[in-house]
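Quick start: load a record and inspect it. Here is nicotinate phosphoribosyltransferase:
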Amino acid sequence: MFHIATESEIKKGKTSDVYFSRAIAALKSAKLDKHIKAEIRTNSLPLEWQWAVLAGIEEAAHFLEGLKISVSSMEEGTIFEAMTPVLLIEGSYLEFAVAETPLLGFLCQASGIATKAARCRKAAGGRQIISFGARRMHPAIAPMIERSAFIGGCDGVAGIKSAELIGEVPVGTMPHSLVLLTGDVTEAFKLLDRTAPSEVKRVAIIDTFADEKFEAIRIARAAGKKLFAVRLDTPISRRGDMKQILGEVRWELDLRGFSNVKLFVSGGIDEDEIERLNPLVDAYGIGTALSNAPTINFSLDIVEIEGEPVSKRGKESGAKEVLRCESCHKTIIIPMGREKTKCRCGGRYYYLLKSLIKNGEVVSKLPSARKIREHVMKQLEKVVSRE
Ligand code: PCP
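Running the structure step on this input writes:
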C-alpha cells in the first residue's frame, strides 16, 4: 500500500544499492571472499557542526543480528567528531557486503536528527523543547525521527506511536482545527478541558482568529488557574516581529495577574530563533528543523584484509581504537592493539568502541531511549562545552 520496504525486505538487503549484489556475484564467481575489518566514520559534519550525536545503533544492532560477524561501536548517544570511527565490523566480506546501504541509512539520518535536537537543547537552555515534526516526513519513519529527537534532547514527542516506542507519554497542545470547529478558543478550551486526561497540561492556541494579545487575555480570564500555557504558532503572513508579539502577550498577561501562564511557541523554530526568543518563551514545539535535519554522511570503508592493514585513498588503514579522556574529554584515535592509558592532562583514557555483536549475537545491553538521552545530556555539559 505505502511506498516503503518491509522489515524482512530490509533484512534481506532488498533496499541495498544493486552494485553490492553485482560485486557479490562477481566475487562468488571467482570464489573470492576475504576476512575483513571495516569502519564507519564521517569525514565531515554538516554546516558548521563541530560535533554530532550518534543515533541508530539499536536498529543497526537488530539489523545485523544473526550475521556471522562481530561488531564494536560507540554507545548510542555518544558525542563524536568527524574522522572518528563510530563502528567497526569484522567478518567475511560476502557475509555483510549487502548490508552496507541499510546499515548506513540507520545511522546517517537518526544521528543528524539527534544532533539537531542536541543543538536545540543547548540553545533552549532549561526551556522545554517538544518534537512536533512527525508530520514533516514519511509516516513510516515518524517513530524513528521522534526517538532520535528525544535521545538528542527533546523533552517530549507529539506522535502517539513515537511516544509508545520510547516509553513516554505523548505531548500535545491544541490544533487550530478545534478552535475553527467550535468557533472560539474559549469554547475549544472548555471541550478539551472536559475530555483530555487530567494530567495533560492545558494549553490554548491563541492565533486563530484574532490578535494574540487579545486572545491571550480572553482565554486567561475564561480558563483561570486551569490554563497552563498559551501557544503562538503565528502564521508567516502575520508574524512580523515575533519577539515583540511575545513581549506584548507577556506584558498583558502579567499586568492582569496571569504571570503563571507560560508562553509556548511553534512554527519555523530553529536554533537561532530559540536564542532570539529565549527571554520570553517557556517552551518550543520544533518540527521541520528536527525532521529535516541534515544527515551525517557516514561511510563504511575496509581498513584491513586478512589481517593486513589496507584502505582506499582518503582513509587511514588498519583497525583503530577511539579513546576519550575522563578529565578533559579529549578524544584520540590509535591503532587497535596499541595501549594508551594516560592523557596529557593526567586523566585516564577510556575506550569508546565497545562490543555490540559477537559472532552474530547482540552482546550489549541496549539502553532505553531515556537512558541514552541522559547519556547525551551528561556529555553536552562536559564534552561539548569545552568548545
Ligand atoms: C504547525 C503545527 C506543527 C508546527 C507548526 C511545526 O502549525 O503546530 O506542529 O512547525 P515547523 O515544522 O515549522 O516547526 P499548523 O500547521 O498551523 O498546525 P496546527 O494547527 O495543527 O498546530
